[in-house]
Write the structure tokens for this entry.
Amino acid sequence: MLFLLLFGFAISFAFAQDRTVTGTVTSAENGVTLPGVSVVIRGTVTGTITDVDGNYSLTIPDDAAKLMFTYIGMKTMEETIGERSVIDVILELDVFGLDEVVVTGYATQIKEALTGSIATVSSDQIAISNAPSALGRLQGQVSGVTVTTANRPGGQAMILVRGLGTINDNNPLYVIDGVPVGPGNNLNPNDIESISILKDASSAAIYGTRGANGVVIITTKRGKLGNKPKINLSIKRGVTQATNQYDLLNTEEYGEMLWMEARNKGLVPGTADINSPVYFSHPLYGNGADPKVPDYILPAGAMEGDPLVNPSLYSYYDYLIQKSANTNWYDEMYRNGILQELNVSVDGGSEKASYAFSGSYLKEEGYLLHTDFERFTFRNNTDVRFTDWFKAGQSLQVAYIDEHGWLTDNAEDSPISYGYRAQPIIPVYDIMGNFAGSKAPSLGNTSNPVASLIRAKDDGGNYFRILGNVFAEASILKNFTFKTLLGYNYGQWNGKNLTLADPENSEPNYIDGVDLSSNYSFQWNWSNTLNFNTTLADDHKINVILGTEAIENVYRWTNVGRDQYFSTQPDYMQISTGEQPPTASGSGSEWALFSLFGRANYDFMGRYIFEGTVRRDGSSRFGAENTYGTFPAASFAWAIYKEEFMAGTSGWLDFLKLRLGWGRSGNDRIGNYNSYSTYSTHGHHAAYDINGTNTSSIVGFQPSARGNTSVTWETTQTINLGIDGVFLNNSIIVGFDIWQRTTEDMLYRLRVPQVSGTATPPFVNIGTMENNGFDLELGYRGSAGELNYSITANISRYTNEITKLSDEVDEYFTTADTRQVEYARATVGTAFPEFYGYIVDGIFQTQAEADAHATAADGYNAPGHYKYRDVNGDGEISGDDRDFIGSPHPDLTGGLNIDISYKNFDLNMFFYGSYGNDMINYVGRWIDYGMFFGGASKDRLYESWGSPHLSNNADASLPMFDQNDMSQYNSTAFVEDGSFFRMKNLRLGYNVPKSVLNRIQMRSLGIYFQVTNLFTLTKYSGLDPELHQPGGAMGLDQGAWPTPRQAVFGITFGL
Amino acid sequence: MKKITFIIMTAVMLSVTFSCSEEFLEKVPLGATSETVFYNEEGIEALMIGTYGIISGGATWEVGWGASIQNWTYGSAASDDAYKGSEIGDQIPANEIERWSVDPINEYPGDKWKLCLGMGVNRANEVLLIIDLTEELTDTQRQLFQAEARFLRGFFAFEAWLVFKNIPWITEETEDPTLVPNTEDVIPYIIQDFEFAAQYLPSSQSQPGRPTKWAAKAMAAKAHMNVLNYSAAKPLLDEIINSGIFTLMPNFIDNFEIANNNNDESIFEIQANVNDGADCSGNAEMGIGLNWPHGSDIGMCCGFHQPSQNLVNAFKVDANGLPMFDTFNDVDLANDQNIASNETFVPFTDVVDPRLDWTVSRRGIPYRDWGINRGRDWIRRQDEGGPYLPCSKPFFYQSERYTLSTTSGWMTGNNANNYRYLRLTHIKLWRAEVAASEGDLATALLHVNDIRDRAGNEVVMGRVLIYELPPSVYPWGAPGDINLNLPAANYDVQEYASFADAAYALKAVQWEMRLEFATEGHRFFDLRRWGIITETLNDFATADLRIRNFMSGATFDERDKYQPIPQPQIDLQPDVLVQNPGY
């Protein structure tokens, strides 16, 4: 590589004679002159920009062959200079962006000339969605990319590119302005110029061991040379609301359900003899033949007039008095959250330098009390052209995030889950205005979720990130451009979590405490690329890029906590003021990567394009035996429509290209220290109070991990076949890719029998996985008078299969296990993951039917209970009868955008859907089956077998409610169809016409009104079929925040 | 800037990049160390402490509550002593254990296996290996270390044997532990470990957490007793008794108080401590972290492990202050099942052994210094767990709250009360059992009466004079509501005048063990070794329907004497591990 570089330097170069070319650029559509068109000498960075009247003037060396004219939304044009000194051009509208410049790894390319599979999203598309995370705004915009977003304020998004390449980390690599980063919500989406998603290995192989899950390249906006300052201001304000809540029994129905349960258990409510085995009473609802809602739950079951409820007895917290209530906890927890966003940006440039500044503020209040997210960002990009051969610049982004409240999502301890865990009889407040809770008997172990939301209002954290680069670029020789870029990325997190006394609950905490967490990561990367670009004999374009890159990352974390505080003022509760001994922990990790890479692209007449890539990566994460890996790729594109034999199609075919690509890329996310065997201390797994002190312990060591010195990257090989076409006078566009990804050497943590120790076993490179699928994009654009409309749709499909896990053929591993029940596992022949459990063949209707069936646990076979299938046919129902019972992976996902504009109005409608995915409604285990005695579903009372409300038990949707725990085991009864079709966005905008703008001296002025999440078609019975749950618990709904509905009004100003 | 300057600068920068790449790619783990640093006295000691670190079976979240050393599930909830308690829907694997319908995929036995074999035996073997590899030790040091490590290995293996019986015997010399079958009788090996430990461990230890030679002998005796090898146990028991080192504490309750951790009666205790900086007081007995009173006035987590009515009935005494072997369960001792706290209930209508109210907290009786037990308001779900608070021996005093109980985490009852794994009472009653089997009625009588004599020394004081207990009564009611100078209930416990025959003696010994060790996790294993488990438990299940219909349909079969080998482990060692019969 170095030799090549030096060889390049050794070539002598001559200084050419300079002359000047001038001209005017106009638009083919309406004939007006175009300001801001970039005019560049092909193969160099030398160029200029047209002025306000569309004129340009450029000094060119004698040997300059062609000028390139590029302008957003217009087709790029190349003009041979020859002897001309005046070159006027007319640019044509580029309907589908085939001429747009696409950012690829370490370079850019014209979209038309791409050989790999790269999806792009423009700033316009990104601007439409309200999602706080830029990545979340990609949902449904491109094919082959699955995006889910958490619904808490500031919710982060997750991207899967073409299925799951591994059972390990499936996150793609993110690169912002040449700086590799992790996923996050700390980027201002308005700053983004474009996003490129490298989907196949022929495009991602240039990222070597980090490219296997795809690469998302984000480029931020830069100023343009010669542009007057442009000021943009946008303001957005709206309301966020919850769209759904569980349909739960009210207080009276709850009592009825308890009486039904008692009867189901063989008890006889109303029995007078307290010693009778069928006697039944409830601490709150009494002991009558029917339940009776008491006036008070504390004192338990008291009625008005009882001396025990005399407020003078009230004493906090020994003698609390709580009236019975009929609380809908969701109504109490939900609110209208306010959403507001403010963006200011200025960009422009002189002849020699350009700049772009922006600042933004976002505040998103969640629809749950006291949950909020605030983000401040600042960005500055600067470019300076020092000489005609040397330019340099920098990018700087600063983000500060402040989030507060109880933000737990998709877990049984999320606020959404506490909404169903609290019984309706509990009031929000007791008679003296303090919080009420579950302290009264028979209210389970819930806490008051409203109290928890309020107490958590000061919890949260802040995140600070500074990210950017400095770079220099030089056309050192004719056709050679050298670029060096130094990137940096520093992130700092500070979190705070208060534990405040909650004496009103059944499992109260009386001690106030604080936990603080802090971590930072610093990463630098330095890349050097040499680009060689030439055109030989007009028809042979050659582009070669060679480069090196080094990356180093350091991460450190510290947690401290302390209990018992004199005052619970948040300002008082500092680590120093706590009274108990503090707890502390902390550690860190580091990794480094060093790489060499190169890519060559050969384009013959724009008709045949060949590309080859190779990267060699060395990583600190790999074992000593396998430090370096090499990743090659090759691809080819054929612009068929340019062939002479296609001449007859020009009436209806505007563009047709075939692409074929092959490549290998790697996944280095194997943990940082997988090759080391280690021992470590541990505060309680390896500590003991050997001295019998009662309050201290001696810390020892335990074996903590076993290393694998031969561990190395996972390799994914991709084959991609794509076809792109534009038809019928630029009105229809079709893009179709069919692909296969095969992952080899997939890391699997071999399950070691426990008898050889429980130190974490190492990953070994043993598994294989295969993904197949297609990506389809369709677009149609038309107009009728002043009405313009376009419809774009994309559909994606992947199938995922583990083809090998280990040398044992029936190797499996559990991927989701909650409350001692296994929900999902993975084995050879399944996708990662799939649901695992019993198969329910209905409900036993008669004792005879139950007796005739294979026996489950003692006494389970009875009318009203589930009839589990005896899969192995041994006459007994046991764990061996479980099977794979559903898949969270969709058959198809798709997005549909409809854009209509009429005069100055525009309308956007965006729909998103998923088809064929299953979900597990784990929440049902609580509300339908009574895992704990919290809130109960309407179905439990009205639809369960034996319900007095059911005219025919054969119609029961749930088994008899007698709290038999076996019915709680995972089975097909919990698996539901998670398919949905959702209208995600409706936006109506109005742009003030030019005539008015000119009068008020503004560049642009627009207003819009937008509503998100208007309707959802689904059969899923939980709150929301659109679940943000990566990894092994994919599709397992454990109480996630449902997608909010937002109504937003916005104004944009351009000066 | 001249182009040439730029080119030179670039070339220099690039050469820097190339030259440093080898070192650049070396990153070692932070805060961890490799094996070689342990090849010395300090290293062995550090790994030894690491092995003690999991002895309570409370390595949460590495293992769950099924691994507790107190065996509150397998030894107590699965016996006639106690119920799982709490709510039926919580911790459903424990329901299977209680109902003797354990599926081999149940995670509770899985955790016990993991703790005992995967962590315990494995860590002890690791220590033994490193002792072998450490050259600088003197013979005495080496033997002492080996004795301690072998005690620990034997201890963990024995715990696994209690629950599973058929376990692989793995030592530091085993080349591949994954190939060792579980078909050989391991009791002899376990006993060898204890015998070795007894030979080299000192007679006393300055650090109370470490075993002495007496602890090793007691463990060997315990192993012998479990296979009814009375003749082998007898000399060991005699040696311990005759050593004179251990004496009974004056009062029964002394063995369950933090203030008396590591007392004169203790032979081996599992140390517990709190607020030492570990998460959630992880060095307390986390394995019983769910087993504290839930709700109402005390309000901790989570109401598990409630005493059974059968156990309470067993404390009834006849007119002579002696147990009612055959009739104890005919009529239930008065209880407040289904009676609201503010309704009338008179707690002390029967005469009972005073140990009842130290073991079980029932309505109307003072609960240590927490106040008067208010009955149903204090129970998480009376219709599912019965009328009694979680078994109270491991509990603590209100005056100790937050100094000797945890201030962090949600298992807020975790406290510094040690678990007396072996105490002199065990030795004396085992000796009595041996004597009864030999027809040596005098020796049996002596030891049983020693225990009964002590049982009457201190009783729960404070008789309630009010029979309605609304919230206002907490903790001690209005002046005059309770007479602290009167015993809380009608207590009587008398010594046996004589044993009529060996069978009666054995019955008396067994009964005494039940009362003395109730809810401490031994009952199931005792019933099993005595050969009376099947009828006892099936009778219990039937009679128990009077108060708690959760056991409806449950039957105890031969296979239920041992827990199943965890299925996931059999899946990993398919031709090596054999499932226990019946599963």
Notes: Residues 251-264 of chain A form the longest helix (14 residues).
